[in-house]
Amino acid sequence: MPLITSVLVRGINNLSDARYCAGMGADYLTFRLDPSLPGHLEPALVQELSGWVAGVQLIGEFDSLSIPEINALATTCGLHYVLMHRRRTPEELAQLTVPALKLIKWIPDMLAEDVEKRFRDQQAHVAGFVLAHAPDEGLSAMQRAQLTQQARTYKLWLGTSFAAPQPVRQFVEEVQPTGIVLEGGQEIKPGLRDFTELETIFEQLEEE
Fold it and tell me: In terms of domain of life, where is this protein from (predicted)?
């Protein structure tokens, strides 16, 4: 179904999530393929899950693996992008066989000019930035204004926690990020999954 923004769903680890999110219009599904990440998946499982979905871009999440190891997994699993947790040098990023997104942590007390520099220094080497989690205390009016400006300048995928206390749709219409980040979950048992939370957000993002 058409959505008003791009949707990236992180941490896919079961067929229920993969098929549901693809069917609801998500553009990207991420799989944690790096053994140093919690809940990482074996390449064979990623191949199996991705074989059941169509029309989505596959992303592997990586932290400590070397560039050659990442490239090998990208080929094995048919990845379209990689999501890098750890910052890599421009030389390393240039060796990747698929484009990279960069996972960015929100640092509440970071100066606005330092945040801008962080984006500016990396933007030429990555396809965009993923800020999955907002600070627990939420954003101030000034931080919201700065984030909106950054979303106009850089390709930002933002977690739904950045919207609080607004509805996600209103946040997307006001801030206009490149996309929204959702989180996959666990099956209650094989083939059984509660999609209530995801469904609520997908419904808000449907084109009217």
Answer: Bacteria
CA-closest candidate to residue 61, choices 43, 80, 37, 78: 37
105 within 8 A of 132, measured Cβ to Cβ: no
92, with CB counted inside 10 A (0-12, 13-18, 19+), is middle
Q: Which token pair is 46?
A: 């990623």
Q: Which residue type, as a one-letter code, is found at position 129?
A: F
CA-based torsion, 28, 31, 36, 38: positive or negative:
positive
Give the integer Cα–Cα distance in Å for 174 and 187. 34
Tell me the longest C-alpha to C-alpha distance in the chain.
48
Rounded CA separation 4/132 (Å) = 19
Q: What is the pLDDT of residues 146-188, one digit of tens each?
A: 999 999 999 999 999 999 889 999 999 999 999 999 999 876 6
Mark out the alpha helices in 41-111 (DSSP H runs): 43-50, 67-77, 90-94
HSE on the CB side for 42, CA within 13 Å?
3
